[in-house]
What does this fold into?
Amino acid sequence: MKIYYKGAKEISGPLLVMRRIPGAAYDEVVDITDGSGGARRGRIVSLDGDHTVIEVFEGTGGMDLSGTSAALVGRPASLPLTKELLGRTMNGAGVPVDGMGEIVSSVERDINGEPINPVSRTYPQNYICTGISSIDVLMTLIRGQKLPIFSGSGMSHNELAVQIARQARITGDDGAKFCIVFAAMGIKRDVADYFRKSFEEAGVVSRTVTFLNLSSDPIVERILTPRCALTAAEYLAFEENMHVLVIMTDMTSYAEALREISSLKGEIPGRKGFPGYLYSDLASLYERAGIVKGSAGSVTQLPILTMPGDDITHPIPDLTAYITEGQIVLDRELEAAGVYPPCSALMSLSRLMKDGIGDRFTREDHAAISAQAFACCAKVAEVRSLAAVIGEDELSESDRGYLRFGREFERRFLTQRKDEARTIGESLDLLWDIVSTLPRESLNRIEDKYLDRYYRGK
Amino acid sequence: MTVSKIKGINGPVVTADSEGLFVSETVRVGKMRLLGEVIALSGDDATVQVYEETGGLTLGEEVVGEGEPMSITLGPGILDNIFDGVGRPLRDLEAAEGRFIGRGSSVPSLDENKKREYTVTAKVGDRLGEGDVFATVPETPSLLHKCMVPPGVSGVVTEAVPDGEYTVRDVLVKIRAADGSIRELTAAQRWPIRKRRPVRRYLPPTEPLVTGQRVIDSLFPVAKGGTAAIPGGFGTGKTMTQHQLAKWCDADVIIYVGCGERGNEMTGVLTEFSELIDPRTKRPMTERTCLIANTSNMPVAAREASVYTGITLAEYYRDMGYDVAVMADSTSRWAEALREISGRLEEMPAEEGYPAYLPSRLAEFYERAGAAETLGGDRGSVTLIGAVSPQGSDFSEPVTQNTKRFVRCFWALDKSLAWARHYPAINWTDSYSEYRGELDPWFREHVGPRFGEYVSRIAGILASEQSLEQIVKLIGDDVLPDDQKLILLVAGTIRNGFLQQNAYHAVDTFVPLEKQMRMMETILCLYDECAAVIAKAVPVSRIAATGIFDSVSRMKYEIGNDDAAAFDAVKRKIDAAVAAAEA
It folds into this structure.
């Protein structure tokens, strides 16, 4: 028998301040009844002698002070966990919205999760082949990695995420146990539809778990969305031994929801009005990626964020990149030039790549040729800025060679069709083709043994 | 033991009755016995920062004071181990609780049942002062652990056990103090982490910490007992540089503090270090290393404590007379933890939301580094290398600026170098070392009399390049006279062949000082010989066409680390190339 307590003192935004509720625990979930008898849920975010502050998941619209009452549920926000989650669609708080009934399981976990003990982790060392040349060769995605896509409004990050989800292959014999957890936070309805349709077309719906929080949905639910998704992912990876790719979009909406709630709580803002704990909060999500000992599965995260004003120093991309193991940066200039996917070779980075490539995983020459490609791209950028000042005609012959390399690199290597999956071998060979347009002695990042074997120029 | 009750909860900050608690006292909070620390008292309220997640706590639960400030146990078993920010051993925690870190656990930080072979050096009747060694034990095959009389304790030995196998709980020696009281000494002692361990006196830095990284050792050296900061935006290689230093620097003990960093990265350090062999002791690197892992998703208050835990461990080994290096990665996460807690306490923020006491906390921390004459009369040092992660890669932000005031060595990492995959991406214009003058006599004596001169000339060429680059950016390099073109070419060789260093290359990852000097000498020889023939109106393009500049760049890979003779061959190549250009 639940006891409902009256005594709402203040309602502001998603926050409901009640008089003290005896026995209330920090972070506990409460059931709320509003004046008209409607049921809502919330969780306790602050406690002191006189007040209990509750975040209402569905928002407080329509609630009044006198009619509102709240009852303790006796546990933190949690999610029932089972393999049956695959193929299902939930809202941001983990409640099914696909009309296929409730999810029943004896396993139910706190959506906040617990930190993985660093000594219980297995260092991620095998790659995921995405079939996209730029990613596979230059910013290789590793199982258990968290590698965000930094994009801007109106760019092709959604297409890229879908293509990765569709094409991603785990090399080796356990390729079958691959699944996707998709968390949508504050995205537009048609974007959500695009994802749903693409997953259907690719026939991956039966191995996808979806958590949807659209831009019109309550912001408190948006805070729960990634936590629900990651709790599901951890269960599938560590208990059901699956390789889980978690796509979270859009992290910018998530962080803005966090800021909105923080400012309503009257907290002292840090940079750009975001709460001082934005780093810790983002880390509590991103760090839930990896491989743990004793499980065959892995959680790989592909968060997508749109950089406000394309500004990579904005707190959201900045703090994200400090936590994640690299980043894939989409470049508006490349996008405008018709390059898809517009991955910037210079600004993108995969920190775990060094241990997941080479003869054991991809090919012996991978490290050398990718290092050379980065160096060449840096040189291309330098030459282009020089050419912008003195004109292309004034450049030396070797500089013009770099301009040619840059064009070929963008047209042939970066660009590929949205349904084109290249093998790692094809991608590497293609890069060698293009690098071989440069004179051999200028390739100072590659050892002779690889040049002898792969260099195709004169 | 004081017991009080919870009055309020806001994230990691809990308010309780203040009765009987003192500031900085360790407390256990609630039924789950979460670890916390009293950070402020005001009237009836005590503010407690809790080192674990506070979800599930209710008002009225007990807060129990433990009667001592936040302390850790120091003794054999620290090395080759990995702790969280408050000194709990993560391996034992895994054994006790599984793969995820639960709450309220109290695993002792040192294995209390492990027996080690002690040699008890104190004899009955000996007079022992604070810091004197009374027993030794090989903690790992690489390091002899010295059991010392704790600071503030002294007296005459009344009992001493014979050599043999003991645990850290066994009493090894009893001493009678001047007031007649008997004090039992075990191999372990407690020390509050926020308190500096005393020394007899601090000594000026005179010896470099040799890291084998050319840009650091030659251009911006840090002294043993010095302080250095590595600021850099994400992806510029802070962590990579810290790893290289932890692997190769010539300290006896390495304390690596992963403060609010990535879990996978800590696992990477664990696996990699256990496979690496220390070139000096020929033993696994882990035997001289202690890791403190407080990853970014572990509780924020423990992150704040982790740097103090690290520096306290370092001071303890310094007191044994060892050279210790502390890598703190990253101090910005620590500063952010301060900010986060300060925000929860509703303190008035100063710059960018950071508390006004940020500079004094940073100063206190960096001041715990230093070379010192220990209480026991040995010489030891703590070198402190802190990574800084400036928000938005903007070095004018408060943590970078304030750190700069308290460190004497600044290795500025540069995004554009990192993008060009020039690693270590230490920018030679923005970086500095205040130790260069103080260390010059050492380099003169131990490496070569002209070492300092070479360094100045190399720095000079890089500086000239910098100013020439301005012109080249505007009008291209064709218009430069040949002697200036030569500067660009030689600077290119310095950048590619000397400053850039490949951490994944077996030879290049660690380069002894001798080879560093010979490399500089060779590059300068190239410059001088070319300059001489250019003065005779030989076009620089003809020298460049011989490929000698690239050829000299490759000596970092082609010449073994103790193959000094090979440099003569390079010199002959230079002679030949210049002669060919002149002919």
